[in-house]
């Protein structure tokens, strides 16, 4: 297969280039300002896989690729968000050209070599198009030997899931980092040293989000449910504050056990 990787020098892109090359496919890497343009690569490829940042550019890049892709080919995008708020992929245009569309998301950032991080990794896939069954089988054939966990989703379902699996913990990490800033650094460091497993897990979450700060910001600015999660958190915090002020015994227990 001829596979165009759009965003070939990024973390995910580099892993995919190496992986598909190792499997014997003809990989066409595309990056900003490279001689190989997106349109040229997409017109040559059987598969065009978009794994680039910023997320808000995905719909624009997918539209450009779809204009030149051949009928029967596969258009994929692998960002954390299926339908960014800044623009949706024109699916009617993609499907009218008899192109199959797939959103494929690695739920833990793949490393090089990709095979090392595929085992047990959750990968969500949603497919649309007349050749969806054929292309899904091809994807499983490529990834299956490394035994990831493939989760088939309906179009649009992915963003509901990641609002809980990604957005919530990213916002919590930002809140914790802000709260740490209120206390003197020696107190924060001492608390980290003394704190038990729940504290350590929270620290790990904050540090992980911080090391991927650019991705975190892009997800929170573009996820269609970020504001819904923030509103729910604000309401929850206000509710907890009211309970604490009134010293209402049992209410917080009911919420935790509910």
**Number of extended strands:** 7
Order of helices and strands: EHEHEHEHEHEHEHHHHHH
Helix content: 40-55%
Q: Write out the strand line-up for the largest beta sheet, numbering strands in chain order.
A: 2-1-3-4-5-6-7
Q: Quote the average pLDDT.
A: 94
Summary keywords:
258 residues, alpha/beta, 7 strands, 14% strand, elongated
Q: What do these coordinates show?
A:
By secondary structure, the protein is of the alpha/beta class. 54% of the residues lie in helices and 14% in strands. It has 12 helices and 7 strands. It has helices at 11-22, 38-44, 58-68, 91-96, 115-118, 132-143, 157-180, 185-194, 197-211, 213-222, 226-246, 251-257; strands spanning 2-6, 26-30, 47-50, 74-77, 100-106, 122-128, 149-152. The chain has a 7-stranded mixed beta sheet, with helices on both faces. Strand 6, helix 6 and strand 7 form a beta-alpha-beta unit. Helix 2 (38-44) crosses helix 3 (58-68). The termini are far apart.
